[in-house]
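Extended Data, record Lipid-A-disaccharide synthase
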Amino acid sequence: MRYYIIAGEASGDLHASNLMRELKRLDAEADFRFWGGDLMARQGGKLVRHYRDTAYMGVWEVITHLPSIFKNLNECKEDILRYHPDVLILVDYPGFNLRIANFAHSNGLKVFYYISPKIWAWNKGRVKRIQKWVDKMFTILPFETDFYAEYGVPVAYSGNPLLDAIDTREFKNESREAFLERHQLPDKPIVAVLAGSRLQEIDRIIPDMLKMVRKFPDHQFIVAGAPSFTEADYQQYVPGEGSVKVIFGETYALLQQAKAAMVTSGTATLEAALLKCPQVVCYKMWGGAFTDFMAKKVIIQVPYISLVNLIMNREVVTELFQNDMTEENLTSELRNLLCDEGIRNKMFADYEELQRVMGGPGSSGKTARLMWDSLNG
């Protein structure tokens, strides 16, 4: 079969690549064409456009890049028609993918959506579009499944693919000593810095995160480099030459060795929790007090911004969002994570409960089987 897949960010690249691997096990003649990243490219097929060239965050960035966005949309539509896939698989990335879903549905193509856009958090009206344009939704969180079922959307749940990625991670059993030696690091407690995968995120968030370097001189701060950036992209924000190391391609290895982490809201919050790394969640958008007011009162329709807290339906990890993301607050929260054993142990216990709720690995294979069975009647 011919599969056209669209993923627009690093997490989508990861989960789509695992899905592709499992689809190949079921379909010996699987042919892939996709918008995504390096991990998807390793599974074979044709990479049409890398997500680093298509990701925009925030209202202002979208407005200033409208010509590029519309150009990408038109090129994608034309490419889909030329390829004429047996199925179009959309991975999150709703601003782009819902428009493509409408187009594909109008042209008689079968549309699967893997990893739901977070419409349950904002703009719930989009569910009507999904109901009309998407043949089947494949969710990765239990509460999402219930949400779509309420609206009559064909939906299937098979667990969360993060559990697959974490279970099969490289350096899974590596000791702390081996990690330090391999990266030529000093024997000091590690604070992991996960600042997101978009340029706008690191530009707005990492300067505040790296202010902590001077606050905690007995710790070493290590940035988990996103695949779409270079070390130079990060070093421009580092306070003092050589004071912060950047490690690429080993986010899981870093988290399992870190004593604590500062994490930009998103999939990384769930990854840190499943790897048992105490964390504080950080997020700041353009717009200051106005954006803070609009987000809390109008846009965001859920009580939390991190997946950990949303799944548990209570505050497991502290969220520093917009105006709360201050140097004083971040210093206080990070000190708690590093020095207060009571807070650390409470978080570890909550992480264990989260693991039970999430279940075990095998999600990617189950999702591929559900898709394969649906495509074959």
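Summary. The mean pLDDT is 89.
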